[in-house]
Amino acid sequence: MRIHHLDCGTLRTPVGRMVCHVLLLEVEDRLVLVDTGFGTEDVRDPRRLGPVRHVLFPDLDLARTAVERIRALGREPSEVTDVVLTHGDLDHAGGIPDLAHARIHLLAAEAAAIETGRGPRIRQRYRTGHWGHDPHVVAHPPGPRTWKGLEGVVELDDVAPGLLLVPLPGHTAGHAGVAVPTREGWLLHVGDAALDARSLRTGRVRLDVRLRQTLIAQDPLEMYRTQRRLRALALDPEVRIVNSHDLGLFEEARAAADDAAGPSGA
Asked: What CATH number should be reported for the domain holding residue 250?
């Protein structure tokens, strides 16, 4: 299984440039995405994103959408059979309408929040334009497996061999990480469970990051408990942790993947 690290929605925020870190997995003759970033209709009509676009300042470029990133690698979006979402926020699920044929995997608690959630915060994070096309959602209840001390893990072997959906609650009702087996161990995409590399490596969080993540978290106390678990996991030599928006983590992971792929790697 080959892994590509894609930026599917650069964010030019007042505190610096961020990415929308998407994984593209080559699984034999098909493709699997972990998150999607923004979609083509978001580029054509940014109003679909609502007022939050005036906070995130997304650099909406058709070439940065998942479907165009896939074409740039010489593959076709029709080869994507499955999308695994860390959660349903607009900067993570914006591209699923471009992949209407694919199965959309997420934790059942997240699917329920998207379908039945009420209130202005819910309406801002789960945009109708991203979910109104009746996608083929596969809502996974917590699984029986414990992985690296984390409970409720769901095995997604039918999506990709060894792939795991790992509950990381707090940021949203059913937020999850996605663990991908590699030759070196594991690649764990933690979505928005941890917003920057510093918090993972040192436990110290910049004030602006703390304020931002607390403001948007569905359950801040649960989020902080999750982050403590991730800081311990970051010490595990078998696990490389990436997240959705940290530019440094994205560039490090992409460089490592290119080195592993050799001179022809993309």
From this structure: 3.60.15.10
User: pLDDT, tens digit, for every residue of 23-39?
Assistant: 999 999 999 999 999 99
- What is the reported pTM? 0.94
For residue 168, give the nearest of 144, 149, 187, 196 by alpha carbon. 149
The Cα 196–Cα 17 span in angstroms is 12
Rounded Cα distance, 128 and 24, in Å: 25
Q: How far is CA 159 from the centre of its chain?
A: 16
Residue 107 belongs to what domain range? 2-261
205, part of any domain:
yes
36, 40, 47, 51 from 98: Cα distances, Å = 10, 7, 17, 22
Q: Rounded to the nearest 10 degrees, what angle do helices 207-216 and 220-233 cross at?
A: 130
Q: DSSP code of 75?
A: -
As a whole number of Å, the end-to-end CA separation of the chain is 14
- Specify the DSSP class assigned to residue 42: H
Establish if 154 belongs to a structural domain.
yes
171-219 pLDDT, tens digit per residue, is 999 999 999 999 999 999 999 998 778 778 777 777 777 777 777 788 9
Cβ–Cβ < 8 Å for 109, 87: no
Q: Residue 19 falls within a domain, yes or no?
A: yes
Structural domain count, the chain: 1
Is 161 inside any structural domain?
yes
